[in-house]
Amino acid sequence: MNPIEFVLPGEIEKRSFEIISEELEKRQIVLPKEQEPVTKRVIHTSADFDYAETMCYSDHAVEIAKELILKGADIVTDTNMALAGINKKILASFGGEAHCFMADLDVARLARERQVTRATISMEKAAAIEKPVIFAVGNAPTALIELHKMITEGRYQPAFIIGVPVGFVNVVPAKELIMETEVPYIINRGRKGGSNVAAAICNAILYQLRR
């Protein structure tokens, strides 16, 4: 049994990241410098070191996401859980706002009428935001599928996609679809992910920018 460590409340997160660094070193995993804060925060959120191997980033993804936030981009999530987890204070300090349209009455009504998921309609609604949008998808692969459809049909171009839905049905191919586009992305390959992971990725980027 591992001994209990005495760690001051304010030092718990710091100690957690020290342990993550130690574990990665033991596994002989060296993360690219730009990606390191994001991947480590995902591991911190999930306690799952598989993410060190499965997180995928388009070229200069983290720097592009940071630049978008600095210019006031909004973030749209596919769950209220992810929305709740994002540090909206930091985002607002750069003129950005976080949204989730999944519980909106018009979204629910249109989804029933068209017999599609609310995530599909939410992505369409988000496309009407008249500023750059970072999409943070942690639950619904149909959100990624709809984004891909809008991109390939030339109807909409997201500024950035964080694609980490969790599950079994269409999750893996939906992620792969996004990686085939020219939109900058952070994707976790495979079945793992979740709203907590989507929020963690957003926060890892936001925390690097806090004043």
TrEMBL record:
<keyword id="KW-0169">Cobalamin biosynthesis</keyword>
<feature type="domain" description="Cobalamin biosynthesis precorrin-8X methylmutase CobH/CbiC">
    <location>
        <begin position="11"/>
        <end position="207"/>
    </location>
</feature>
<dbReference type="Pfam" id="PF02570">
    <property type="entry name" value="CbiC"/>
</dbReference>
<dbReference type="GO" id="GO:0009236">
    <property type="term" value="P:cobalamin biosynthetic process"/>
</dbReference>
<dbReference type="InterPro" id="IPR036588">
    <property type="entry name" value="CobH/CbiC_sf"/>
</dbReference>
<dbReference type="InterPro" id="IPR003722">
    <property type="entry name" value="Cbl_synth_CobH/CbiC"/>
</dbReference>
<dbReference type="GO" id="GO:0016993">
    <property type="term" value="F:precorrin-8X methylmutase activity"/>
</dbReference>
<comment type="similarity">
    <text>Belongs to the CobH/CbiC family.</text>
</comment>
<protein>
    <submittedName>
        <fullName>Precorrin-8X methylmutase</fullName>
    </submittedName>
</protein>
<keyword id="KW-0413">Isomerase</keyword>
<comment type="pathway">
    <text>Cofactor biosynthesis; adenosylcobalamin biosynthesis.</text>
</comment>
